[in-house]
Fold each of these.
Amino acid sequence: MSELKYTPKDYKSDQYVRWCPGCGDHSLLNSLHKAMAELQLLPHQTAVISGIGCSSRLPYYMNTYGFHTIHGRGAAVATGVKVANPQLSVWQISGDGDGLAIGGNHFIHALRRNVDLNIILLNNRIYGLTKGQYSPTSPRGIVTKSSPYGTVEDPFRPAELVFGARGHFFARCVDVDGAASVEVLTAAARHQGASVVEVLQNCVIFNDGSQSIVATKADRAKHAIYLRQGQPMIFGESNELGLMQEGFGLKVVKIGENGITEKDLLVHDAHTEDYTLHLKLAMMEGDFPIALGVIRDVAAPTYETGVHDQIAQVKAKKPARTLEELLMAGDKWEIK
């Protein structure tokens, strides 16, 4: 008998996908189906949890268990699912509004606890479902339905939150960059602990062009760097540029100029415990390339394992009791 092998279509539900034509969510959904097929996840051992927002419709389009919860509470519910059944592969789908505004507290504590969740953060820098208000990741000065004269506040940068919450896995991809998206999604699933994949996503209706700097393959060649474990940090249209350390910071150099060779460039190590360089890479902007790929991937004890180990230890020290024995185990008073 041949071994059953799942394909991407095995993870697709029969529901009509209700997103705007051209929305980056379509591409991410396709990449997620492919990633699950590559991982050969058992659909009946997989759960997809979401909050509220455009991206939070995603569980309906998965042939797995799913839970469309309430606004900002996806991480809390996903934590409960994972602790109740650690054998499940649990994916949390969230947008920048759902995950970082009302859900911000749940987000950082899921990371701090290191619950084994695969958190996909679709960042289009706008509230889409509620029709175009600015979100926690919208840039200062953006004009939206809720900021007609431009915002007067600075945005969250998801990587900064992840590292500040002592996160052990952070990766980034672009919605339409299918192969690279599958690569980071599979890496996130293989990581034991809380993993965050920030998806730079376009909203064609309310914030079109927000990710234009990396929207096409040509754009990414000019403005992005794909970080790969154990490989020198090279980028550019012809791989002519690289990253070197300069003091406590980074600098962009041109290979071949001033005697600089590939051996002089920084080599990516996502597994090092010290996150100083990981944070610098994740925060690059302006004259620096945008970092894509797995930026940090460090092993650490997981929350649900700790909980179940603790329960086992306590049970081993105490004999099993009936409910009546437990109720009568404390101080007793007899009333006559």
Note: The longest strand covers residues 290-297.
Amino acid sequence: MLKTFRLGGIHPKENKLSAGYKIESIEIPSEVTIPLAQHIGAPCQPVVKKGDKVKVGTLIGKSVGFISANIHSPVSGTVFKIDKALDASGYKRDAVTIKVEGDEWEDYIDTSDTLIKECNLSSKEIIDKIASAGIVGMGGATFPTHIKLMPPPGTKAEVLIINGVECEPYLTSDHQLMMQKTEEILVGITILMKALNVYKAIIGIENNKKDAISKFRSEIKNYPNISVLPLKVKYPQGGEKQLIDAAIGRQVPSGALPISVGAVVQNVGSAFAVYEAVQKNKPLVERVVTVTGKDVKKPCNVLSRIGIPLTNLIDYAGGLPESTGKVISGGPMMGKAIPSIEVPVTKGTSGVLIVQTLEAKRKQMRDCIRCAKCVDVCPMGLNPTLLMNLTEYSEWDRVEKERATDCIECGSCSFTCPADRPLLDYIRLGKSTVTKRIRERKD
């Protein structure tokens, strides 16, 4: 029997329209804009100025906080300006714009396809290299990877769990990366194991990716202490806490981190980026992005440099369909609608989903019928309709008491609600308000 998490979950249509399409590189435009905040935590400080010449891999943004990640130039050329630019959130934030001139890489980067298996670095040296390269969680959370590899005092990692689930409908970038870069990912996993000083790794993959499961199983014979775990197809199987429950049967307590149960979770894309950073000295300057939608002419998985406008990716997939009602960065469940298709690809851009007008329209909200479906499907054991009501009436103490901060924003509640109530929208508001109040109390 396939393993899965214990609480809640739903089964939305998969719509993996781009499954099986090989990764294709997209052309670099004449100009790119690189946001200086592409990660959870403090934005980077620019270390270049207008007129500076840069190459692919040149440091352009230096991390200035404990939770932060360096940013490197994804192109070669001249810094045109450092100014505010619109990002996927709809806000203007600091960014570096570069005029592209050729495609010259920094000398320290190994651009060959040669697989390098052996890593003789110490745990600290590995973590330092990952930090220097600006690696973040590639599943969309964008938490700086090197921070996850430094467990807080009093905690110890026992197992590394690799997230190859990709349960979000439509997205296939991780799946295709697993098919084309299997060994590189496995080497990346061994490097992560060494950094954490753990001797066990589990690769969780949903059972709808049988080809990836088979390929990893055939390759891990040469990689001791790494196992492949097929998982039941259920959303949000790829949630960090849900994956830990499915893989090792441990539930992360409310308000606690995965390390509290001895687990560290990394996305397959992050494992690949770690391989490139440690073995090839390559910073995170590009990523695989799924471009898809029911009316998209050519659903695809593209290798895009950071900073390329999403409109270029959409053009590569056949252009914006006339039926377009909304464009989402990410998938339909946890992704967010973007204000403009001119916003750039960032480290956290896993997909570009083009939604039809009819599907993009919100239905009229009706009164709650007390069916409790939202409670049944919540993977965190919350009461979404109660949290929505408490938020609506600004009952912030109750919102906190009812554990709004535990919400993983998976959208299962809104998806299943027969009254079409915007449960997640209200819970997000409640969660952000309570988080701010908690932070103010600590200050």
Note: The CA atoms of residues 122 and 214 lie 32 Å apart.
